[in-house]
Amino acid sequence: MSWIFGILYSDDSQAQFRDFTPLHGSSLKVFQKENEYYLAIGGNPQTCHFDDVCTDGVFFAGVGTLLKRKNGATEICPTQTWKALANNPSLYSSLEGHFVLLTYTNGSVTIRTDRIGLRTIFWAYHNDSVVISTRLDWITRYCGGCSIDYGVVGSRWILANQFSYKSLVHNIHRLGPNGELVYKNKNIACTQHSFEPDACGEYSIDDIISLIKEYAIPSQQNERRLTLGLSGGLDSRLLLSCYLNSKFQNFQTHTFGNIEHPDAAIPKAMGEREKFLYYFYNKPIPEASEIIPELNGYLAQTNLVESAATFLRLRNYRDLESQNILMIDGGFGEIARRQYLNRIAYRGASIIREKNIEAVLSHLKVNRASIFSHELTTQMENGSREEINFMLHSMPDVDKIGLENYMDLWAIRSRFPNFGSDEQARLDSFILNYMPFAQPQFLNMVFFDSTSLEEKRKTF
User: Fold this and answer.
1) CA-CA distance, 327 to 309, in Å (whole number)?
2) Which listed site, 173, 191, 271, 348, has its alpha carbon 20 to 30 Å from 144?
3) Has residue 276 been placed in a domain?
4) Average pLDDT of 431-448?
5) In the chain, helix, strand, coil percent, each to 5?
């Protein structure tokens, strides 16, 4: 992934220059000051942004993809915009994309995350200092002696995804969506805010389609080819239609995995019929000596959001890594069709209104192998109940916003930052990318459009 790793020293006896390269690997930039800090940023240069030098005790470092919408066009922001955001937080609400942005100003550190929570950062106290990183596994290795929080892990095993923004490891903290962490005078203040739809008008299906087209073809996209992750699903095919029904030609599509699978066979048939550039990637299974280290890194970064088997398909991203290319992905488009949490929606608002944790749990359980001891399984089930309780008490009144909007908001607040963030961070290490359907303005329109669900399901 494109990553950040740092130590904020608060004990002068600890504050000595050290080489952390064995932990985080080669970096693009290191900022360090004796007795104060060590901060490194690295990974894919296209998704890393930082100051060249520390000027007057100020610098910034950010990872991800920052988007700016202006006059009906979406722009991928250059480093200058990241710097402007670091210097002027009031710009924050006008920008989209996924990112972690760190700003250092004369002994104070501020870290911000995007409004949806598709990128995150972890932090922990260790030996009177604070260690921060976008990689949870690096903090555990640096601190040593860490233990898994099976209550939180349980929500990722027993449920479809975690609901809260807790870390999977005891005593390591995670910054959630729309988060701000401030380190000053050896103290940390941390806030985060779950996504809240902005009631800024009522929209039609034409407004939504117009916005999708804007996201699908960003401005100033001439020198860099665009590649669409294409499958047999509705959302990537909707994005494909944006390209085929426009004058934009500097695009291609790609698909990973078994060519016999419908998600590969359908795009192949469409490419042959519509005559657009179509690429299929399916790396052979490597020898054990090669695949085991890669698989260990994959599992450390994805944190149980995907099965280990998906590694064989998703490792094909490396074939796109060397190309000067922008990837558009149709992930989370299901939100416009209300495809999440329908098992609760069909049961009705009563179990939500009553905050019936057991009833909600019974409808959200996912059948997975029973591989844990009875003691750990009990911890995981209790942790899942705590996660459900967190959601039931942090969500708005179901009767005020309606059951359908309630379930959509539940999905955005829990699935996007928990199911999406780990793979998003890993993907940033290979290629510049973003998801049109996971942008705040699109989600606002979904909540405040005047279109019936039946019409939306015909469109999406």
Assistant:
1) 23
2) 191
3) no
4) 92
5) 40, 25, 35
> Which sign does the torsion angle of CA 69, 71, 75, 80 carry?
negative
Read off the pTM: 0.94
Contacts of 27 (CB under 8 A, 6+ apart): 21, 40, 41, 42
C-alpha 384: how far from chain center: 22
Per the prediction, the chain carries an average pLDDT of 90
Which pLDDT value is given to residue 449? 65
pLDDT of 133 over the 70 cut: yes
Q: Is residue 391 part of a domain?
A: no
Cα dihedral value 326, 332, 336, 339, nearest 10: 150
Tell me which amino acid residue 132 is. Answer: I
Which of 435, 434, 393, 424 has the alpha carbon at shortest distance from 410?
393
Which pair of structure tokens corresponds to residue 99? 């990112």
Report the domain count for the chain: 1
Q: What is the distance between the alpha carbons of residues 386 and 350, in angstroms, rounded to a whole number?
A: 19
Distance of alpha carbon 204 from alpha carbon 446, whole angstroms? 9
* CATH code, 50: 3.60.20.10
400-416 confidence digits (pLDDT tens): 988 888 999 999 999 99
Cα Rg of the chain, angstroms: 22
Task: Quick: pLDDT tens for 100-119.
Answer: 999 999 889 999 999 999 99
Helix (H) or strand (E) holding 193: none
* Residue 183: strand pairing partners: 109, 188
Sheet holding 325-328, edge to edge: 278-281, 251-256, 225-229, 325-328, 432-434
Please indicate, yes or no, if residue 389 is contained in any of the structural domains. Answer: no
- Where is average pLDDT lowest: 82-91, 199-208, 307-316? 199-208
Which range of residues forms the domain containing residue 51?
3-150+166-191
Q: Which of 190-194, 219-223, 289-293, 347-351 has the highest mean pLDDT?
A: 190-194
Angle CA(177)–CA(178)–CA(182) in degrees, nearest 5? 110
* Pairwise CA distance, residues 259 & 246, whole Å: 28
